[in-house]
Write a structure and sequence with these properties.
About 25% of the residues lie in helices and about 20% in strands. It contains 6 helices and 5 strands; from the N terminus they run αβαβααβββαα.
Length: about 170
């Protein structure tokens, strides 16, 4: 918690569909830092399929986008496989932003990627539990959008972390 809030580090939580609420983090330091409430969740949908979409805020974040223009990014998103595992949370916290959401086969929209500032740092919750499916349907095996997305996400998490030593002089 101090690494993120005081030092300016980053925290990204992800995991299978029973990782967030069922993980017992709601009263732990991790739960306090996350941009979502972990106290209870909507019941999980059995045999659901989820399509990933960027929100308006997500389109504004260059580290979320993998392609150079909106048309290519829309094509990439529409070609992604459906996801089957989603961590359901009650709500997002004040000050948090939903950058990506999923739409289920019945039209229900739920958050998929939520971020927020935390002190001098930032935290994120990736609620899709089976993001690995994204790499299974790739047609070009020389370049992986999933790998590029992870690189960009990690860079975003650590981009503002100061060096090991900071020297500051004051008058």
């Amino acid at each position: 918690q101090q690494f993120v809030s005081r030092r300016g580090g980053g925290l990204l939580m992800l995991g299978g569909k029973e990782s967030f609420v069922e993980g017992g983090y709601q009263r732990a330091a991790v739960g306090e830092m996350l941009p979502v409430y972990l106290d209870r969740a909507e019941p999980a949908t059995i045999d659901a399929s989820y399509r990933l979409l960027l929100t308006r805020e997500g389109w504004l974040q260059p580290w979320i986008r993998v392609r150079t223009n909106e048309q290519d990014e829309q094509k990439r998103l529409s070609s992604m496989p459906e996801f089957k595992s989603l961590n359901s949370v009650r709500a997002i916290k004040p000050g948090a932003s939903v950058l990506a959401q999923v739409t289920s086969s019945d039209g229900t929209e739920r958050p998929a990627l939520v971020v927020q500032p935390f002190g001098r740092g930032r935290t994120a919750a990736l609620l899709i539990g089976d993001l690995w499916r994204w790499n299974l349907k790739r047609t070009d095996h020389t370049q992986s959008d999933l790998e590029k997305s992870w690189r960009q996400t990690v860079r975003w998490l650590v981009s503002d972390v100061p060096g090991r030593v900071e020297v500051e002089t004051r008058r």
